[in-house]
Specification:
Layout: H1 3-26, H2 30-41, H3 44-62, H4 71-89, H5 114-123, H6 134-145, H7 150-157, H8 161-180, H9 195-205, H10 209-214, E1 216-224, E2 228-231, H11 233-237, H12 240-244, E3 250-256, E4 259-265, E5 275-282, E6 285-291, E7 305-306
Parallel strand pairs: 1-6
Antiparallel strand pairs: 1-2, 3-4, 3-7, 4-5, 5-6
């Protein structure tokens, strides 16, 4: 091996070790970051995209600091900005300016009881938060769901304290109105699992790895979230060995945010999935696999609808 290859290997090894240490440093904050980003984007999968984007940005910025900044407010500030960028890219931006909020007086009589506000935020459907303007959304999530102080929220969202109070009041009011709206009496329309997804799950559950690999596109991509990435049928094919060595699990077709996913049931008696896997397709071949095995918090707020057994 020549010196340039040796140097490159050393750099990659150092980066891998630095990444491992960084992920260990932020591990305790990640579930709350995901709860925040999920409600900012209206999707648990998109929320994890923003978390990954946040951590990548934070890892880059950290190298420019001489000392570690206060971890939680720093990460939430980055997460908020990345979530806003995501909303802009996805054309979800509200007409109200992102940093605007009427500066109303700090009148506690106009605010709901804190405990009531917390219950309201916890019980609200994730999609309800998209009805709030981004500044209102961020303030309600941070205060009523994650219990940040008003001063912390002002620093994290780069708002004045009166603007935080105004956005919080307006967001709580709208969320309460949404919660009080009568629910639709129409039941969900029946859905059928796509044949390709059902076949993939069946082969996977039978440990027919040759059959599973035959369903992969030549240029298939794997994202084992927060652990590793791979591309190409040969490289991705190695990934199935982890499941071959693990007992008790099964895949069950399901829906999340109206998208088909594979719910991973960790044991035969599990009432709900431990996590899920998302596939994309190209001409009935698997174009990409996104496996959330190593971010179990992903299902904390996920409303996953399981397909009937055998569907």
């Amino acid at each position: 091996m020549d010196s340039s290859a040796t140097d490159a290997a050393g750099v990659i090894s150092a980066l891998e070790e630095g990444r491992r240490q960084f992920l260990a440093l932020v591990a305790h904050v990640r579930p709350d970051l995901h709860r925040y980003c999920t409600r900012m984007t209206g999707s648990v999968a998109d929320g994890e995209d923003v978390v990954q984007d946040t951590l990548a940005r934070a890892y880059y910025e950290l190298s420019e600091f001489k000392e570690l900044p206060p971890l939680r407010p720093w990460l939430f500030r980055i997460a908020h900005n990345r979530a806003i960028d995501h909303l802009r890219r996805e054309a979800y931006r509200r007409s109200e300016p992102l940093d605007a909020a009427l500066e109303i007086a700090d009148d506690r009589g106009r605010e709901p009881d804190s405990a009531l506000a917390r219950r309201q935020a916890v019980n609200a459907a994730i999609s309800c938060f998209l009805e709030l303007a981004p500044a209102q959304r961020g303030c309600v999530i941070l205060k009523d769901l994650l219990d940040h102080s008003l001063e912390e929220i002002a620093a994290e969202l780069d708002l004045s304290l009166p603007a935080v109070k105004a956005a919080l009041h307006r967001g709580r009011t709208l969320l309460r109105t949404l919660a009080a709206a009568p629910a639709s009496t129409a039941g969900p329309s029946p859905r059928a699992v796509s044949p390709a997804l059902a076949q993939y799950a069946s082969l996977f559950n039978a440990h027919d790895w040759d059959g599973v690999r035959a369903m992969l596109a030549d240029d298939v991509r794997l994202d084992l979230v927060s652990r590793r990435k791979a591309a190409g049928r040969r490289e991705v094919g190695v990934y199935f060995g982890n499941y071959d060595r693990t007992e008790g699990w099964r895949l069950q077709p399901a829906w999340l945010d109206d998208r088909e996913v594979l719910a991973v049931m960790s044991d035969p008696l599990a009432e709900g999935p431990a996590y899920f896997i998302e596939l994309t397709w190209s001409a009935d071949r698997v174009a990409s696999i996104r496996d959330f095995r190593y971010v179990g918090y992903i299902v904390q707020d996920a409303a996953i609808e399981l397909a009937p057994a055998g569907a």
